[in-house]
Structures are given as structure tokens and as C-alpha cells.
């Protein structure tokens, strides 16, 4: 027990070291090194104690060193008791932590939840600081590219079925990028930062990207130009095959492995019938540090009319309007789970994150311009009456319908006018009205009215549920 | 424009006043007063500017003065740019703010999302610091007690259908409580604090509650005893009628209005057939400040076996085990929306909050003790093969099934053994296996196997989708 107390003391001290470095804005490398020591100490403690801390709190340590240059977007929380806390930045890192702490080696799951970014919001493009993400991930040691292909199939299906217009899914591989940087002559320590610059090619012209590489990141023009040649390449399985013949690239171990997998991936995508939208694009980089293999990003071709967007949001957009940009992205991250495991055990993962709020904002704009009314409820029938003093009968019938699984509504008024009951149906798109009156009650029937056609039929009360079900299939 | 700039300056200054008071831990009354001034200034500013601030950030001001003694459970966030921020405490206050800022006067909606409390977690009872709530609310000016009755019907339905064992829904009314305090002789300014003490009756014996009233809150023994008589009363419509005859209580305007509504509510609950579980209980208080009328709380009778709970969680529990306690609660809050409206326009609301995590933890415990396996996927069929080198054929068939809307899975292995494919079905409860082999491919059929019965039939490939649908209805 003395050892444990010593270890706890050491963790406390090391935690203070980390916090001090952070408050002094020390270099990322220095902080990461001390955080690694802290995690190692916590891993040594092991058992329930360490786990407890992890399970109940999302410590800022969890997020440190995962997001590369995006780290500045993490929402910090006020320290509540000696720990640095932040708001969840994405769903991938928490998923990896969950797998490691629960020793899960095989899982396939989706997750819809909010994440937070200290970014500049752009409302018309559906970019907020707090927003929902929808993630799908496959974790486990499997044969190459099969789960990766399934992720791409899912993105394809979603974008296709939601009918959002034309789209493309760009695919690349971190190993191909790294191999490409190596054969172009980028120094090893600059791979990540050059990767971030390449990632800007979707928003910036090559000229400006090159300028950043040369002027800010210190590459020679030669090296930048060689990168420029590669990143202009786009294709499919054919491009992978062609690059496998590239004398320089194919000699690089990383690039060779990436290109071989890319070729295999496209053969599976062919079977899944999605190759019409998937493009192998060497300019796709994605900023996050945790990717280790295949990466991808889905882009809608559709633009938002210029009249809807604000000038600030039109930066870099063409005259026709603002591009919605990326609506889904992801890739393979085989090292992330191991970073949370005390013994560093790896669980290979591949996943995709769908930007559902952006997709929603497009669907809303589409609905607004279309003449078709979007229903916000699934109510099948409104229980109404044409006469006064029938509230109790209305409530009784509503309850009967609810108990039978019918989606029924009733106006919360003692004596609503028939007209306002019918108007409510027209406004909200309720297709049927069940009308009660003295006569109907006497006859044991309900008058069932079709709101659109205004047709009315008397239905025996015992048959009402079946009749409503038949008409609202 | 000069006026606007002045107003903005005034808002900034007033914001600093509020922050200073808070940092000095000034009294709640003093802070509330200054916050009110701040809100008034912001309301004067009006227009897009004020709205913008509200829409993008949940300022701590939003939560101040809404939760009574529970305010200490709000998770504060670190100030990100001159504003005090906190994590969402419940879904009711954000809902009210949403209505006010979007000028919505009629809505009925449910909302499932996370909320945060700085509370002591109790894992076995499903109490965490971060947890999901599921709220249902009806907003709008309607005839008395009709939406209130619907909320109770919904709680009844949920608890009934989830088969969580016996339960009770306690109902009371803030106006009845206030009237009761008045006729018992509680000074006006002590209503809220005495209300909080009464609220503890579900966890503490009357003797201890009385002690708190007398020793801590300064009531005389007489007054406490008079309260004690009322709060021991339970009943239904009959109790409401009896108390309407109570010479003291019926003379109090507030109590009279509350009792009249309670009587009406029970007449509607009778029509909804839920009175077997709903109890009018004068000891129900609920701690939150925003309730103005009917309040209710649903309590499961079931207990968690003592062996599962930790000693710390057994505080106040009987020998048999730990009570799960309240799993739903809510009430009427007619004043909350008006607090966010610049002109104070009121929108009456009634709602209920379901403690879905507590309900989940009970259902999980039930599932663990039952022999029946809980499926975690809805997969209808696994696409398998008995021979090697058929991965491509498996992927092709899987894609066909996906495209036809069938929930299909395939193992991510090049050459999995048939046995491990069948084992996967047994472990995860997949009912059917579609088996491909050289012979089947030649014959244009698929061998469809029922996992449970081990029966196999050859199905023509063109009929496979229909056959799977028929068997997995």
C-alpha cells in the first residue's frame, strides 16, 4: 500500500508539472512528453482507481496531442478540482478511449452526439461551435481494406439516399502521403506540417499552397514543385496501378503498402458498386494526427445560392455561390486505442464522421424552396367534435386510439370550433379526422374524414383502429 | 446609432457589475437584481445583435435563479471571452429560452440530450454527473389540465410498456403547497425554503424533516406540526374534494385554485384510465423554483438487490435493497418563458422529464439476471461461405442485400471458417445465414440456413430478398 500512495503522490506532482507547462505556454513537444509520463504513471497505478478517474471525467489530457493544429479549437472547461477539463472535440478519441478502458477488441457501432469547436461559426453553411456529429466505426483486427470499403459504401448510401445532389468521395492514404513527401525530399520532421498545408488545397489555389510551403514552412521550390506534380493526380484503381509503376514512389516502403491497399480497396468498391463517385486523390490530406492509413472525405457538388450567404462566408467561393464543402470524412486510425491502453495494446480502427448538421441545413434549404410541405409530426388522426360539451368523449376516444398504438392528437380546448380543428390538420398535415357528435355516439360510430378529399364515412367504433391503420400505411 | 453604442457600453458595464458580485460571492438576491437589470438592457438592445449573443452561447446568466438550492450542481465553464459559461443543467430552461427567442407560442415536442450535475455519482442506481434526459413538453395557452393530463398519461404509458414493475406517480400543485404553508402560518419569505425541506420527505422521516424546519429554518413547532398533518395526506379525486371542504384551506385563494384544478385533472386521468397509479400526495414538493402549478414525480416500487449496491448508496434504504427512486418528474411552469422574453410575454408550459439512464440501468440489470439474450444489432442475415476464395462473391451478395434494404453482415476475413461464421451468428443472435459455395454459384441459388433450427434450403438468388424478409418479419 505504501507503493500505491507513493505512486499517487508522483501522479499528483507530475499533474502539476503538466499544468505548469501549459499555463506557461510551453512547446507542444515538451508538454506531450510530460503528459506521456503522467499517463504512464497512471497506467502503473492501474486497477479500479485509475479507471474510476478516466470513466467519470474527460480530462484534458485525453485530448492533448491528438488533433494536431486543430487543438486550438478545443473548448477548455474551468478546472473543477485540480484537473484540466475540456468539451468533447470529436467522437473518435472518446471511442478509442472507451475501447481501451473496457478492453474491447471487436466492435462496429454508430454514435450521434454533440461536439464543440472554438471556431468561427458560419450559420448558412451549417457551421456552429456546438454541433452534432454522427460517427460510424469498425474496430478489430481484420483482413485489409474490407471494413474500409464498408465505411465508404455507407457514406455513398447516405449521400445517395438523402438525394443531396451530386457528390464525390475523395480517398487517399497517409502512407502514400508520407512516401510522397519522402521521395519529394521533405525532411521527416516536416511531414505533419506539410500535410496540414496540402490539406488546404480544397480551399486555396496551388500557388498559395506552394507559397506557404516555401515561405512559411521552409521547403525549397524544387521540393514544393515535386509535391505539386503528385497532388494534381486524380483517378481510380488505374492511378494506383500506375503509381505502383512509379520508379521512385514504388521504392518507398510506406507508399508501396499504401498503393497496394488502395488497389485492393478499389476492387472491393467495384463490388459495392460505388466507384462512380469515389476518386483516389493525392491532394487529400486531412489535418488530424491520428490517421495511419486510408483517409477519405465526401464533398457535395451543390452550392448555396449567393443571396443566402453573407460576404464573410463567401471567402474563396466562386461567383455562383458558397460551396457546402465536406459533409463526411474519416479514415483508418490503428494507433489511437493503444495510446489509452496501459500496455499499449493496439486495436486497428476505421471510421467515418458524418456532418449531419451541414446535411440538415442543406435539406432545410431544399425544403424551403420546394412547394411540398414538410410534416413535423407523424400524427395519423385528430380526434374532433362538431358540437359543444364533448371534451370528455374526445379524450376517451383519444385514449382508446393511443392504447391501440395509433398516433392521435386532440386539441387542448373544451369547445374548439370544427373549422379550427380542420385548419389544425391542414397546417400540420394530419391526414384524417375522427369526428364525434351526439348522433355518432348514439349510433356507436365515428365519422372519419379525409382531410385532403373532404370525404366522410361513418365507421363503427370497433373498426376505427383498423380503418385508420389501413388508410395511413 | 449613438444610442445603440451607449446601450452596448451600458451592457458591458452592467456585465462587469454582475461578474464582480459573483466573484465576491454576493447574496443571491443582490446578484439576481443586477442580472435582471442586465437582461433588461439586453432586451432594450433587441434586434439581431442581442439575439446573436443569446443564440450562440449559453451564458451562465441564463441558468441563474432558476434552480433554487440545486444551483450548486451547475457545472461552470471557464470564461472564454468575458462571459460566464456553464454546462446545461436540464432541458427545461433551454426549451423556455428557445420559445422566447423564437417567439413560439404553441409547440409540443420531445428532446433527448445530455445534462450535467456537480453531484455525487451513484453508479448502481444509474446516477452520473453527465447523463441523458428525455423531456416532453406542451407549450401554449389551453384549457385547464388537458395538456397536464396528457403528460401524466405519457409517463404512465412509458413505465407500463417498459415493464419495470409496479410504480406510482405522485401529483401535487405548487399553489396547494403555498396555500397550505400560508394557512399553517409559515411566513411568506420562507415558502421556498420550507418547500425544499418538505421535498426531502421521500428520503427522510417526518421527525427529521420537522427537526430541519424547526432547528434550521426557524419555524415554530406548532406550525411544523400543522404542516405535518397535511403532508401525510394521500388520495385521489376524493382527497381534492375533501380539501375543498377544509374551512381553512378552501379560503386560501391559491389553494382553492390548485384543488379545483386537481379535481379536474383527476376527472381527465379517469378518462385516460391511469388513476390506478396516480396519487394526489401533499408531501410532494420538488425543489425547482420554476414550477407554478401541477407537479408530479414517478417512483418505481422495485429495489435493487442489496448485494449489488455499495454501502454508501444504501443510505436511507431499507434492508431489502436500494430504492431506484424517482425515474420521471415534471410540472407546470407558466412563468419561465416570460423571463426570457424582452417584453415578458408569457407562454404557459407543462412538461415531464424522464430519467432514461436510471431506467436503462434497471433494464440492464433485469437483462443480466434473465436467461434471455439481449441482441445488440438488428442484423437479419450473415453472408457466409463454406469454401475458400469466395470473399468477392460474399461482398457482392452483401452489397445486393444492402441495396434491397436487408440488414446484412459479412465477416471481414478473406477465408473465415464456416464454424466461426456460424458461431458469430449464435453469439450476436443473427437468425439467418446465406451460404455461398461453388455449387450454389453454378446453380444460381443461395443456401439459406436457420441458425436456431439448423435447417437449410436452397433459394433461387432472385427470391433471396423476399425469403429473408418473410422469415425475419
TrEMBL record, chains A, B:
Report if keyword Cytoplasm is assigned.
yes
**Superkingdom as given in the UniProt entry:** Eukaryota
Name listed for the protein in its UniProt record: histidine--tRNA ligase
Q: Which GO terms describe its molecular function?
A: ATP binding; histidine-tRNA ligase activity; identical protein binding; RNA binding
Reactions listed under catalytic activity: tRNA(His) + L-histidine + ATP = L-histidyl-tRNA(His) + AMP + diphosphate + H(+)
Taxonomy of origin reads: Eukaryota, Metazoa, Chordata, Craniata, Vertebrata
Q: Where are the transmembrane segments?
A: none
Report the coiled-coil segments.
4-41
Supply one GO CC term from the record: cytosol
Q: Which family does it belong to?
A: Belongs to the class-II aminoacyl-tRNA synthetase family.
The enzyme's E.C. designation: 6.1.1.21
Which residues does the UniProt record annotate as the domain WHEP-TRS?
3-59
- Name the keywords, alphabetized: Aminoacyl-tRNA synthetase, ATP-binding, Coiled coil, Cytoplasm, Ligase, Nucleotide-binding, Protein biosynthesis
Report the residue ranges that make up the Aminoacyl-transfer RNA synthetases class-II family profile domain in this protein.
110-363
Extract the Pfam families matched here.
HGTP_anticodon (PF03129), tRNA-synt_His (PF13393), WHEP-TRS (PF00458)
- Provenance organism: Cyprinus carpio carpio
Q: Name one GO biological process term.
A: histidyl-tRNA aminoacylation
SUPFAM superfamilies per UniProt: Class II aaRS ABD-related, Class II aaRS and biotin synthetases, S15/NS1 RNA-binding domain
